[in-house]
């Protein structure tokens, strides 16, 4: 077939156009293409295969089969609901668990208290950077003494050691022996930062010990509420204190 013949045949071919939408069906939207029909058919057959698989599974199921969800589940208003198991713990068991909880919390609180005492013994309650500045008051009689007051002379030390609140030797001591401890500014700064970190750790442990004490009180209160004695709430529970109840007096044998 020559090139001229193929060109003439191609010119005689009519271009493919989509089928026109009838005026009566305009309100129903555009006609679906062949590709859309294929997708719908594929989805239909997929669902039919899934239904046949479920039917086969239901027919093969043993009618005498039992599993525990059969008695813990039900359909209510078309919704599948699983029944929650009832709490089978007796009040005596709850009270015993409360006691065990209190013992554990008290054990942790005592451990924190021991660590706090150990940190206090190490730090000797020295002033840390960022803490409230201590005040050292000196009393004089006249205004002239106030203007001419010399702290170094009054403390009998050198001016370089005036800012120290500890390890501040007198001039007589310095004449006999050298200053004990580090004197390098960089090392002193490093030690001050370490001391500040230790004070931060001490503060955190004190707060943790207080929190555990509050938790222990709240657990004890809940344990006491298990008693059937008539009680009246006097004060609500807060984040820092348990609730306060007033119990009816009952004489014990």
UniProtKB/TrEMBL annotation:
Keyword rRNA processing: yes
UniProt entry keywords in alphabetical sequence: Nucleus, rRNA processing
Location (main, coarse): nucleus
UniProt keyword rRNA processing, yes or no: yes
UniProt record, GO biological process: rRNA processing
InterPro entries, sorted: SSU_processome_Utp11 (IPR007144)
One Pfam family in the UniProt entry: Utp11
Taxonomy, superkingdom: Eukaryota
An example Gene Ontology CC term for this record: small-subunit processome
Protein name: Probable U3 small nucleolar RNA-associated protein 11
Source organism of this protein record: Loxia curvirostra (Red crossbill)
UniProt lineage: Eukaryota, Metazoa, Chordata, Craniata, Vertebrata
């Amino acid at each position: 077939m020559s090139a001229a013949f193929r060109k003439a045949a191609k010119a005689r071919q009519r271009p493919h156009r989509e089928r026109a939408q009838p005026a009566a069906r305009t309100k129903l939207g555009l006609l679906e293409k062949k590709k859309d029909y294929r997708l719908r058919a594929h989805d239909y057959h997929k669902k039919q295969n899934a239904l046949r698989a479920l039917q086969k599974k239901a027919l093969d199921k043993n009618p005498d089969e039992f599993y525990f969800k059969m008695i813990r589940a039900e359909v209510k208003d078309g919704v599948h609901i699983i029944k929650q198991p009832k709490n089978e713990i007796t009040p005596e068991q709850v009270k015993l668990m409360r006691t065990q909880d209190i013992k554990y919390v008290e054990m942790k609180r005592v451990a924190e208290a021991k660590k706090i005492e150990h940190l206090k013994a190490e730090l000797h309650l020295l002033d840390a950077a960022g803490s409230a500045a201590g005040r050292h008051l000196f009393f004089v009689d006249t205004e002239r003494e106030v203007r001419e007051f010399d702290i170094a002379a009054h403390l009998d030390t050198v001016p370089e050691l005036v800012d120290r609140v500890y390890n501040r030797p007198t001039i007589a001591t310095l004449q006999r022996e050298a200053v004990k401890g580090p004197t390098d500014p960089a090392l002193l700064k490093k030690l001050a930062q370490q001391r500040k970190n230790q004070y931060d750790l001490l503060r955190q442990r004190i707060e943790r010990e207080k929190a555990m004490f509050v938790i222990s009180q709240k657990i004890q209160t809940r344990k006491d509420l298990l008693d059937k004695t008539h009680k009246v709430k006097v004060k609500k529970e807060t984040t820092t204190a348990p609730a306060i109840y007033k119990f009816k007096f009952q004489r014990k044998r």
